[in-house]
């Protein structure tokens, strides 16, 4: 039995490069995927993503615009550690000790979604994904407007390739190195 994997495109298509996750999962959905893999465009519906994760996934891959200071179009693969934040921490934070995340349906960062998931799992007995990855792209512009900037649009096919490599790692060459390079960030 294949492990269940959810690849979730998140972001706002009305804010330029913030639509990277949505565009990437749209392109990824055109590929044949292994059994047990779901690719979903969640857009700005972070609450829906948290509830979907209650269905029991082994791995979650969040695809999103991720500002880390690189050149626009730079791709990042970030493995979130259990209990660690997945982004720069600029999203809504917990209201106070034991009060859970502050929920704003229009500003659900990956951190907030995962905090909500933790609260939902504690209340329902569900298990969160064992592994969470963020496949991010450095945005050039996240101001009002539809469409990705040229460097971010050019990064979409490479992001699709990275996602496919996560699902089906390439066979090693004679030296034991993967035939396709999978870039990771520390």
Walkthrough of the structure:
The protein has 186 residues and is α/β, with parallel strands linked by helices. 26% of the residues lie in helices and 18% in strands. Strand 1, helix 1 and strand 2 form a beta-alpha-beta unit. Helix 1 packs across helix 4 and helix 2 packs parallel to helix 3. 36% of the residues are buried.
Outline the fold blueprint.
Blueprint: E1 5-10, H1 20-28, E2 37-43, H2 46-52, E3 59-65, E4 75-80, H3 110-124, E5 131-137, H4 150-167
Parallel strand pairs: 1-2, 1-3, 3-5
Antiparallel strand pairs: 4-5
- Please, how many helices? 4
Structure summary, number of beta strands:
5
Multimeric organization: single chain
> Within the largest sheet, what's the order of strands?
2-1-3-5-4
Shape: globular
Percent strand equals: 15-25%
Are there runs of 5+ residues with pLDDT below 50, and where?
83-106, 178-186
Order of helices and strands: EHEHEEHEH
Radius of gyration: 16 Å
Arithmetic mean of pLDDT: 79
**How widely separated are the two ends?**
31 Å
Coarse structural class: alpha/beta
Quick summary of this structure?
By secondary structure, this protein is α/β, with parallel strands linked by helices. It is 26% helix and 18% strand. The chain is built from 4 helices and 5 strands, in the order βαβαββαβα.
């Amino acid at each position: 039995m294949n492990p269940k994997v959810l690849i979730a495109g998140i972001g706002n298509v009305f804010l330029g490069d913030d639509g990277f996750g949505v565009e990437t999962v749209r392109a990824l959905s055109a590929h044949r995927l292994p059994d047990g893999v779901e690719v979903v465009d969640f857009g700005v519906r972070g609450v829906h993503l948290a509830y979907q994760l209650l269905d029991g996934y082994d791995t979650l891959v969040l695809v999103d615009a991720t500002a880390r200071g690189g050149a626009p179009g730079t791709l990042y693969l970030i493995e979130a550690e259990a209990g660690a934040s997945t982004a720069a921490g600029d999203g809504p934070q917990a209201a106070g000790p034991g009060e859970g995340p502050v929920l704003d349906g229009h500003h659900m960062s990956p951190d907030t979604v995962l905090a909500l998931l933790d609260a939902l799992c504690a209340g329902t007995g569900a298990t969160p994904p064992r592994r969470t990855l963020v496949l991010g792209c450095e945005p050039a512009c996240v101001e009002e407007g539809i469409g990705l900037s040229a460097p971010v649009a050019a990064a979409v096919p490479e992001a699709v390739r990275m996602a496919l490599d996560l699902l089906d790692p390439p066979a090693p060459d004679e030296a034991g190195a993967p035939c396709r390079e999978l870039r990771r960030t520390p």
